[in-house]
Specification:
Blueprint (H helix, E strand, L loop, with lengths): L2 H36 L5 H16 L5 H16 L3 E4 L2 E3 L2 E6 L2 E6 L18 E10 L4 E5 L1 H18 L5 E10 L2 E7 L2 E6 L20 E10 L2 E5 L1 H14 L5 H13 L4
Parallel strand pairs: 9-11
Antiparallel strand pairs: 1-5, 2-3, 3-4, 5-6, 7-8, 7-10, 8-9, 10-11
Family: Belongs to the bacterial ribosomal protein bS1 family.
GO biological process, one term: translation
InterPro entries: NA-bd_OB-fold, Ribos_protein_bS1-like, Ribosomal_protein_S1-like, S1_domain
Length: 270
């Protein structure tokens, strides 16, 4: 065998050994990676460390764990439309400042109350009931509002007052407005009822203005209360009075008439 042939065989043998070694290393690496993936965290402490590390990566060092957890809680408040009772801690241009889970929040003056707020300084130190209406951690923007809560409560109070009005009741109100189909009567407490044109008078009229004028005080009977709508009648009230007057007129019985005639003749002298 020549030297050239020997060198070739040795070279082939070395290449084969290298290939085998590399293949073995690849298999070991794959097994190690699979083992790492399949191995759960050894304890809650390890998990907590991994979670904190992930927060640091997410925030690129900008947010600490407490801040992230605070914004997470605020997001829950927003999604659940929770009502928060907070204290106004500062006054700024066009609004006030409150703290939510340690995060600075802003309530615009237009959302502090249903009514217009002229001076926000009067609100310093006061408690307010608000909802989160905007929460953006990236922009560090937290906006809250009390107005929606107050409107909902006002609406519920009105609904309850309407529900308390019973059919058959007689109420005094003022003509609020006249329409072609009837008149709206202000019954007080922000409640109005419809007095249909057919329920205004016993006579047929074409327009409520023939009998009523705005601001006039009237007595009406409640004839309907359904789905938050109150129906009224002046006509029914007049008819009820007529029936009561007729019932008050006592018609004597036949025996009473006979007795009265007997008493009359008894005193006559023939």
């Amino acid at each position: 065998m020549t030297e050239e042939v020997k060198v070739t065989e040795e070279t082939m043998t070395e290449d084969a050994v290298k290939d085998q070694t590399q293949e073995t290393a690849d298999v070991q690496t794959a097994e190690t990676e699979k083992t790492a993936q399949d191995t759960p965290a050894e304890s809650m402490e390890d998990y907590a460390k991994e979670l904190e590390a992930s927060y640091e990566v997410m925030g690129d060092g900008e947010y600490d764990t407490d801040t992230l957890l605070a914004w997470k809680k605020i997001q829950e408040y927003f999604e659940n439309k929770e009502i928060l009772t907070l204290t106004v801690s500062g006054i700024v241009n066009k609004g006030v400042i409150v703290m939510v889970e340690g995060i600075r929040g802003f309530i615009p003056a237009s959302r502090l109350d249903i009514k217009h707020v002229d001076d926000t300084n009067d609100w310093l130190g006061k408690e307010v009931r608000v909802r989160v209406i905007e929460a953006d951690m990236e922009k560090n923007k937290l906006v809250l509002s009390a107005r929606e809560i107050l409107r909902e409560e006002e609406k519920e109070a009105k609904r309850q007052k309407i529900q308390d009005i019973k059919v058959g009741e007689v109420r005094t109100g003022k003509v609020e407005s006249l329409q072609s189909y009837g008149a709206f009567i202000d019954l007080g407490d922000g409640i109005s009822g419809l007095l249909h044109v057919s329920q205004i008078s016993q006579k047929r009229i074409k327009h409520p203005g023939e009998v009523l004028k705005e601001g006039q005080e009237v007595q009406v009977k409640v004839i309907k209360n359904q789905d938050g709508k109150v129906g009224l009648s002046m006509k029914q009230l007049i008819e009820d009075k007529e029936e009561a007057e007729e019932a008050a007129i006592k018609i004597p019985k036949s025996e009473e008439i006979g007795t009265s005639l007997g008493d009359l003749f008894k005193n006559l002298k023939l």
